[in-house]
Design goal:
Length: 144
C-alpha cells in the first residue's frame, strides 16, 4: 500500500470530520459543529495529511510559530490504517517543518500516553486548560 503525505494541502471539513470519525478522535472533537470544524482547519497553520489514493487516512494539525513552539492539536489515523507507522510519519514530517529550536507539544488522550513516550516525547504534567464555559478567576497576588 502506498501512502502519500502532503504538507498544507487543502481539503474540506467533510473529509476532516470523516477521518476523525474513522480514527476515534471524533469522541473528543466537535464533529457535530461544522462551523467550528471549518474554523479549526482554516486557522491552523501547519497540516500534514496522509492519503491512500483519494482517501484521507491521517492528519496531523498544528498551530505554530515555527521557532519556539508547535502545538499538535490533532493527530488522527483511520483505525483500519493504524499500526503501519502513519502517525509517527505524520509527526516526523511535521517536526521537519519546524526551526531548530522549536519543540513539538501535544496534549495526549490518557490511553495514548505510552504511544508518545515510545516516540521520544517527554511527559510534562504542567498543562492547564481553561474550558470555554468557565471564566477566568481573579488573579492571585504575586508571590513575594
Amino acid at each position: 500500500m502506498s501512502i502519500e503525505y502532503r504538507i498544507n494541502h487543502p481539503f474540506s471539513a467533510d473529509l476532516f470530520i470523516d477521518v476523525l470519525r474513522r480514527s476515534t478522535l471524533s469522541a473528543r472533537r466537535p464533529v457535530h459543529d461544522r462551523e467550528c470544524m471549518e474554523g479549526m482547519l482554516k486557522n491552523s497553520n501547519l497540516q500534514i495529511s496522509a492519503w491512500h489514493g483519494d482517501t484521507l487516512v491521517g492528519i496531523a494539525r498544528a498551530l505554530t510559530d515555527f521557532h519556539y513552539a508547535c502545538y499538535l492539536s490533532d493527530l488522527a489515523v483511520d483505525v483500519s490504517y493504524q499500526g503501519q507507522g502513519i502517525g509517527s510519519r505524520l509527526q516526523s514530517l511535521m517536526h521537519q517543518q519546524l526551526g531548530p529550536h522549536c519543540k513539538l507539544i501535544v496534549i495526549s488522550a490518557p490511553a495514548a500516553n505510552a504511544y508518545y513516550e515510545h516516540l521520544g516525547y517527554i511527559n510534562n504534567p504542567r498543562c492547564w486548560v481553561l474550558p470555554r464555559e468557565r471564566s477566568l478567576a481573579r488573579e492571585r497576588p504575586a508571590l513575594e
